[in-house]
Structures are given as C-alpha cells and as structure tokens.
Specification:
Layout (H helix, E strand, L loop, with lengths): L20 H19 L1 H10 L4 H12 L17 H17 L9 H20 L4 H25 L6 H23 L2 H22 L15 H10 L1 H21 L12 H20 L10 H21 L5 H29 L2 H11 L1 H22 L2
Amino acid sequence: MQTPCQGGHRGVQTQSYGGTGPCWLLGLCNNFAYVVMLSAAHDILKHQASGNTTASTSATLSLDFQGGNSSNSSRYDCNPVSTAAVLLADILPTLVIKLSAPFVIHKLPYGFRVLFCAVMAATSFLLVSFSSAVWMSILGVIFASISAGLGELSFLSLTVFFSRDVLGGWGSGTGGAGVAGALIYSGLTQVVWMYFLCCLLLLNNYTGHVVFPLNVTEDRPLGPLTFTEKLHIIKGLRGFVVPLGLVYFAEYFINQGMMELLYFPNFFLSHAEQYRWYQTLYQVGVLVSRSSLCCVKIRKLWALSALQVVNAVLLLFAVRYQFLPNAWLVFTIVLYEGLLGGAAYVNTFYFISKETEDRQREFAMAAASVGDSLGIALAGLAAFPVHKYFCSL
C-alpha cells in the first residue's frame, strides 16, 4: 500500500515518494497544543492568580505547590504558582499513557486513536480559553497532554511500517510545532489562535487517515509479542531511555524551573515577553535539530545528556548569583539547549528503529517514548522547591 509519506510497509515492495511533507504536518499538529500550553504557562498562572474570582483557588495552589511569594516582593518577580504546575499537568497524563498503553494499545485501531487525540486537543483549547479559575485551566492542559501523549506513542509506532525517512519527517514536524505554537501564541490574540488551532486539528484528523493506512494492526510480522517478550525489550532499551530521560530532565528543569526566574528588569522586553521569547528560541533550536536527521546522525546519546546537564547547572548558578549581563546571552543558551534536546529525541528513535528487530520494532518505539516524559515529569517536581527557594529571597 502506498501513501503520500515516503516509503511503504517494511518487507513490501512499494515505490517511495519524494517528500515527507504530510508526515511533517502530522508531527506539527500532534504537538501543537502541548507546546502552546507550555508557552502560555507564565501568562495562564499570572492571569488567574490576579483575578478576584479565583483568589481562593490561587492561594490554595500557592500553598500546595510552592508556599510562594504572593506579594510578588521577590527580586525574581515570581508568580505565586510555579510554571512547573502547568508542566506537570502537561506531562503527567502523557507519562501515565506511555507507561501503560504500549501493553494494550495495539487492540485499538489507529484511526480511532487519531480521532480521539483531535477531540482532546480541541477541548483543551476551549477550556483554557474560557477558563475562569486555575483548576479549569489546568484541566485544559491535561486534555492537551492526553492528546499529545497518545498521538506521539501511536505515530512513533506507526513509523516502523515505513522507511526511516518517515521518522525524520515526523521528528521535524514535532520541532515545527514548537516554533509554530510559541510564535502563534506570542503573536496572535487568544480567540484568533484558538480558531486557527481548531482548523489545524481537523487537518490533523484528515491527515492521519490519508498519510498512513491506519489498519496496520493486522500487518504485524510473526504475531503479537508476549508480555515476557515486551519486558525483555524494555530492559534492552535502557541505553536509549536513560540518556533521553536525562536530557529532558535537564531541559525542562531549565524551561519550567529557571526560565521564569531569568528576568532582567532593565531589558527592553517585559518579564512576560522575555519568558515567551525564551520559549520561542528554545523551540527554534528543537526544530533545527529534529530536522537534521538527513544530514547528521549522533549515536553517542550520553554526550548529549552530559552537555544538557551542564546547561542546567550553568543557568541554576546564573539565577542564584545573577552574573549574566543581559537576556541576549540567555537567548543564546536556550537556543543551544533546544538543539541538544531535539538531537537527542530524533537520534534516539532513529537508532532504536535501526537496531531493533522487525518483530520488536513497533513495541520498542512506543515503549521508549516514556523516556522523555519521565524526565520532564521529574523536572517538574524538582522545579517546585527551586521556585520556592528563589522566590523567598
């Protein structure tokens, strides 16, 4: 069976098409809502915390999550609630899905999964756009997480039925989602980008049916894997999952633990604008590196992990001792941070696809996707005490 994506089912003689554009678009659509929620984290919490109708809810979250500085007297101009609250809402549902779904998800058709993801993402934007309380915004973020997590797991599994060029298109598209989401949030009003997103989600659902033959559940070689075989595969994936998790722990510890605190009062951008552009430049780095698979491949994933940890330590000391002169240097660092994170993601799944046996590949791709989500979740938990400490100064 041939599709607009380059390549066909492994083991089937098909003609390869020349482009991966539809796969790129699919990756963009899948991660769009997730990225917008993170880009909007600072504004969501600031807006809700300042509203009279949500004072009690905000105070509760402030006590539960941070014990924060509601008077905003900190030299770091802190929100009462750390943006890690949005990060955890955006990643914990994804983590639960990725830990459990690989064992049972093969029983659900791909078409049903895509439709469900589209509905969840659309609902997330409606909830956040019209929310009147912090809990309602967080619920919307959770819906976005469910959509992105299930979609990523499903489409990574589905790429194994095609040539590896499809994985490059998907990875680049997910990087494009970062830039598109951050820029659209920064540049458009809430109502405008909400309607734009709804149109994009409809395209996502359509593309999922056109790009891939979504009935490939019946085309698995040599039958389904046993539970014991799946556990054995997971054990063999440690060399991929641990470095990926470490990269994303350091990466999101920076993004949701440090970025809000890297504030330069005398800069020409406001605090909210600085935060949004940190997120945007980080996503530009992700896009570039996730699109680099056709040009460069990096097998030494531990090196990427070590470099990302160095970034996190550097910015942690920069927040504490405030030795960075201005935001321009931070812009450069977060761009580099995005390059490392995107490279770790796309190379991890490329080499899993390359080095895993045909019969194990579909499950391995889904199971390994837990690495980044686990790292992000741990980073969100670590960000709360860090935010509390710095905001108390």
